[in-house]
Design a protein that fits this description.
heterodimer, A: four-stranded antiparallel sheet, 14 strands, elongated, B: mainly alpha, abc type-2 transporter like fold, four-stranded mixed sheet
């Protein structure tokens, strides 16, 4: 039985807009155990940022419960703020302070003594690879370095939990990899609980729990491999010579569950792999369409994600 | 708590100093305004441009005109034919006043039935007031002189002084020579300080909201009151530096004497500046974006200018307006500034204003902290 670090129960957040109320979070329930790395995965506008902000107490909640380390998001905000680190989606550190001034500012507001700062700040700067940039203005750092500075600042008070809202948005692939290896170290060395919002499938694969959020609802949550198993049937991939007619043919075939496009390729979920393959090849042949590279592949996070979202969409449509 | 306040103060201080241009503007603006206003504002208007239609052209009319000009209140810019020309000149704006002296003026003076017509531009309050008062006084003095000359010619034994039945001795305290600047400078220092203090902090919080940096501040354990106090302190320093420069320039360059106790003035100015910064923070806390803050700032500064007692005496205002005046720290500080600066009085006469100002200063900071939205929605 793991201890609970973050929990949300029946969480609701409604924004009042000119077009009427908008449910940004709709009865969302999730639990993150201590030491876990939880990825909240979802398309843009699904409610990832709103969920993070409500759990942190940055936004009021319309209904339900949420807490971090047993502290209620709304009532115990200061207890949470002393124990939790946060990186916002945008860069929200003072841009006209240098790296070291930012570190000192956030250390001081967290009540860290001068001696402790002198010991901890160089350590964090080295960890984030910012040692050579201490006197540079935060606003003049590269995208990747900004994120690393934000991470360093959010860790200054040795939090037990960090919430990261799309921490690698606008960061180059190399820096992304570096950032995630920093997170990996933190989890391994300090047992830090990490809650991360991301639209990137490869980042979701690095989490040990993934929650899939869509239109403010958590439509699936499991381990990454568990999520992939949620997709029914088997996955076939091939490259049609003529894309549109081939794609249009696939939908109505017996045994075909779902059609996804993947670049110039088609991804077809079928009930049975071999029979599905024969059916598809026969149909394409009878219509005089050519193809290449037909093979059976293992569904990845991406296919699972698209499948789960489109199933949810179809379900919403039926209602 | 103190560590967090100091952390914010230090951050604000670094940010203020880093933006050199803005800092220079903040430090020079009140001084510049003081100098410009001191030269521009004249309540007692002299050298009013005047046209003359002297249809008599005799000894008596010339003597009357000479009296007018010698007062320094009127400058004759041209002579014209009659009333219509005078009105035309005022319409055109070339003259602010015009004098029409009818034909046979000397004969009418001798008969004691002389009439002159003074036309004044009524579209400009200060000119109208000054021209009206000056012309009245000059004409009456001129008339009395003529009458007394007459009398003393017929009764040479009596000196003209004994003929006046009433003599009023007017003793104007504090500013016997009625110098404009003596009236203006203390109030102007107060007014400039209010304008600047509100401007200094009215963007302090809303700017963080605009830049998004408020989000990182909100997820730290900073309490609203700590944020307010932390943002006040560096601005307090800027405002005090400005206060000193304008007091020094006001007294030395413009020769307005500082009659009272300077340390007392400084101490009370500190409370006053704190109150102004608090009002700015209140604006900043309730504004959703910098534009709203700027509009509110403008409105408060302008309304404060009119109803705080800086220009117009408050006791002439309707009670409701007097009440509204109490939302401006300037209202409390005008009597303090004039009291210490010009009248040289001590705290024993001022404790009412001082108490009110202190309550205001403390209250407004708490109020601003209370209205500070601790969430992003």
């Amino acid at each position: 039985m793991t201890e609970i670090a973050i929990s949300a129960n029946g969480l609701v957040k409604t924004f009042r807009t000119r077009k009427g109320p908008l449910n940004a979070i709709d009865n969302l329930t999730l639990e993150v155990g201590r030491g876990e790395t939880y990825g909240l995965l979802g398309p843009d506008g699904a409610g990832k940022t709103t969920t993070t902000r409500v759990i942190l107490g940055l936004l009021s909640r319309t209904g339900g419960q949420s807490s971090i380390l047993g502290f209620d998001s709304m009532r115990d905000t200061y207890a949470i703020r002393e124990r939790v680190g946060y990186i916002a989606q945008q860069f929200v550190l003072p841009a006209d302070l240098t790296v070291i001034e930012n570190m000192r500012f956030f250390a001081s507001v967290q009540g860290i003594s001068q001696e402790a700062q002198d010991a901890r700040i160089p350590e964090l700067l080295a960890f984030a690879g910012l040692t050579d940039f201490t006197r540079r203005l935060a606003g003049q750092l590269s995208g990747g370095m900004k994120k690393k500075l934000a991470l360093a600042c959010s860790l200054i008070h040795q939090p037990q939990v960090v919430l990261l809202d799309e921490p690698t948005l606008g960061v180059d692939p190399v820096s992304r990899r570096e950032f995630w290896s920093l997170l990996g170290n933190l989890r391994a060395e300090k047992g830090l609980t990490i809650f991360v919002c991301t639209p990137y499938m490869d980042e979701a694969e690095r989490c040990n729990q993934v929650g899939l959020i869509y239109k403010g609802r958590l439509i699936a949550h499991d381990t990454p491999s568990g999520i992939k198993k949620m997709v029914p049937g088997h996955l076939l991939e091939f490259k049609p010579a003529k894309f549109v007619p081939a794609r249009d043919l696939m939908g109505g075939l017996p045994g075909v569950l779902e059609v996804q496009t993947y670049g110039a390729m088609l991804h077809i979920f079928v009930e049975e792999a071999e029979r599905g393959r024969r059916t598809i090849e026969k149909t394409l042949g009878s219509h005089g369409l050519e193809w290449s590279g037909m093979r059976i592949i293992e569904p990845r996070m991406e296919e699972a994600f698209i499948s789960l979202v489109s199933r949810q969409e179809a379900q919403d449509h039926d209602q | 708590m103190l560590r967090r306040i100091l952390a914010i103060t230090q951050k604000e201080f670094i940010q203020t100093v880093r933006d050199r241009t803005t800092l220079m503007i903040m430090l020079s603006m009140p001084l510049l305004q003081l100098i410009l206003f001191a030269y521009a504002i004249h309540m007692d208007v002299k050298h009013i441009p005047m046209v003359i239609a002297d249809q008599s052209m005799d000894q008596a009319s010339r003597s009357y005109i000479t009296d007018m000009v010698r007062s320094d209140y009127f400058d004759i810019i041209s002579t014209v034919q009659g009333e219509a020309d005078v009105i035309h000149a005022i319409d055109a704006g070339t003259a602010r006043a015009g004098l029409v002296i009818p034909p046979n003026f000397a004969a009418q003076v001798d008969r004691g039935s002389a009439n002159v017509l003074l036309l004044v531009d009524g579209s400009d309050p200060f000119t109208t007031q000054s021209a009206y008062n000056a012309a009245n006084v000059i004409s009456q003095t001129h008339a009395i002189t003529l009458a007394l000359d007459d009398l003393s010619r017929s009764m040479p034994a009596i000196s003209s002084q004994d003929l006046s039945p009433l003599t009023t001795h007017i003793n104007i305290l504090y500013n016997p020579d009625l110098k404009d600047l003596w009236f203006l400078i203390p109030g102007m220092i107060a007014m400039l300080l209010q304008t600047q203090t509100i401007a200094l902090t009215s963007l302090a919080v809303v700017r963080e909201r605009e830049a998004g940096t408020i989000e990182q501040i909100l997820v730290s354990p900073i309490r609203p009151l700590e944020l307010m106090l932390g943002k006040t302190l560096p601005n307090l320093l800027i405002a005090l530096i400005n206060m000193l420069t304008i007091v020094v320039v006001g007294t030395l360059a413009f020769g307005v004497p500082f009659q009272g106790n300077f340390p007392l003035f400084l101490g009370l100015a500190l409370i006053y500046v704190f109150a102004g910064l608090g009002l700015g923070l209140l604006i900043s806390s309730v504004s959703q974006n910098p534009r709203q803050a700027q509009q509110l700032n403008m409105m408060i500064s302008l309304v404060g200018l009119i109803i705080s007692g800086f220009i117009f005496p408050r006791y002439t205002m309707p009670v409701v307006l007097q009440g509204i005046g109490y939302i401006f720290p300037l209202t409390y500080f005008i009597p303090i500034a004039r009291g210490i600066f010009t009248k040289g009085i001590g705290i024993e006469f001022l404790w009412g204003s001082v108490a009110a100002l202190t309550i205001f200063a403390v209250g407004i900071i708490f109020f601003a902290a209370r209205l500070f939205r601790q969430r992003l929605d």
